[in-house]
Amino acid sequence: MIALTNAAPLANAIRKAKSLRPRVQFVAFRVYQVISPCSGNVYRVTFSVNPQTGSRQGHCTCRAGVEAMACWHLAAAVAVHQAIQAVRVHAKAQLEAARESAKELRREREMVALNPS
Ligand SMILES: [Zn+2]
Asked: Which of 45, 62, 95, 101 could be bridged to 77 by S-S, CB 3.0 to 4.6 A?
């Protein structure tokens, strides 16, 4: 497991991931498959959050990942995971706003029904 407290330990891995541009596939929530553009090898990257401390960890099935070293597969999956999380947060906010608008509209309709002019 690699602690994901800040990007500094991942700096080299991020640079390599940016240059290699591997294919990252979403498998399930916090689970990604990273395909090496050079070898075609497939690695599984998983993320977890410690429920007690809130600290975040990542794990990759490659040799470096098994040795708890920051690998470029993990860096690539982090980028995709962050993008997906940002979309989820945005979608949740949009849904909340739509629900509030619908509630307001219902209240206005009820007021009109109770006070016909
Ligand atoms: Zn790896």
From this structure: 45
**Three-state secondary structure call for residue 57:** strand
**27 Cα: distance to centroid of ligand 1 (angstroms):** 16
pLDDT digits (tens, 9 = 90+) for 32-74: 999 999 899 999 999 999 999 999 999 999 999 999 999 999 9
Alpha-carbon torsion, ordered 96, 99, 104, 107, to 10 deg: -140
For the cut 80, the answer to whether the pLDDT of residue 116 exceeds it is no
Distance 111 CA to ligand 1 centre (A): 60
**Cα 23 to middle of ligand 1, angstroms:** 13
Which of 112, 46, 114 is closest to 80 using CA atoms? 46
The pTM of the full predicted model, rounded to 2 decimals, is 0.79
> For 53, which DSSP code?
T
Domain boundaries, the chain: 2-83
The stretches of 10-117 forming alpha helices (DSSP H) are 11-20, 63-66, 72-114
